[in-house]
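Entry:
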Amino acid sequence: MAADPKTTRSNPAKAWLLAFIGWLLPGLGHLGQGCVLKGFLGGATVVLAFLVGTSLGGHIYTFQDSGEGLLSILFGFCNAGSGLLYLFSRMSGFAMNEQPALATSEYGNVFLMAAGLLNFILALDAFDIGAGRKS
């Protein structure tokens, strides 16, 4: 259970740290504040969506314009929201190749983007809790 925001002092450095940790490892920003259920469910949802996306044949976009236009850069931003999952994929080459022959590859791409965007939301929520804006 989180502390009451009316009695919590604002600590911007801690809030930024929790948001960064929450982005890096999905759900950890909430776990660090004692919101165990929210952290576990949020993190598990991000990881599950990422795994479903890769199993459906989705691929990780990069921030570089690969000839697909500005949308590929936007998709890269969405994918980067997955934190360490994204960084691991980029460094290892996992899920980096497009698989247009698979009928489900576009669904996989959407799952990967949704996982990243959900993790951004979780990190921002961890920031708000750490800053004392919400409980």
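Residues 105-130 form the longest helix (26 residues).
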